[in-house]
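Morning. Coffee machine broken again, so started the prediction first thing and wrote up yesterday's gels while waiting. Chain of 219 residues, entered below exactly as on the submission form.
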Amino acid sequence: MPPPTPRLFLVRHGETEWSLNGRHTGTTDIPLTVRGEEQVKSKAHILVGEGRPIDPKNLCVALISPRVRAHRTFHLLFEHLPEPPAHIIDESVREWDYGEYEGLLKHEILARDPQWSIWRDGCPGGESAQDMCSRVDGVVAKVREYHRQYFEEGKGTRDVLIVAHGHFNRVFISRWMEFDLTLGTHFNVEPGGVSILSYNHSSLDEPALNALNLYADVK
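Came back before lunch.
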């Protein structure tokens, strides 16, 4: 009998002041709001722990964005347990670099460039759409290699955890399923939301989205 199908838990950090008002937050280190912390803590007991979907003993690796909002989200998820699992602070799962558009609202960007779409144009002084696609594809390949080693060679354990950001996660979901990056615009990931990515028919050749925005505060 084959082992259980491997999974990736993809988490967006909780609410910040800038995510609340719609400012593009890439490299700026904004903390969680009080409500953002509660968004994470309220679902931790449901999702995280022995016998729960995110069971520390099943995590072969946890990749965490270096931004404080993501790192804090990770620790809040495991705060009710004796200790958090080992984790890696990984620049490759940081948010899209918005360059000159850092901190701006969408209407402020459109005032500069009325035809702008991040999915096509990227950000001047930051990452282009191709830059973002290449970076995310590298993370997808890394996760799939963890999964392959577990599923085909019996190395490690079943699950991977990533705690990251809104645009990163939307791009990741799209590229995981081998869609064009631009289709990420159709996947809304809410603050504190948890997505599950896995495979159909226990086949690593059939990547799939199993869940989106588990227990998030959906607007």
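The longest strand covers residues 207-214. Going to sketch it on the whiteboard this afternoon.
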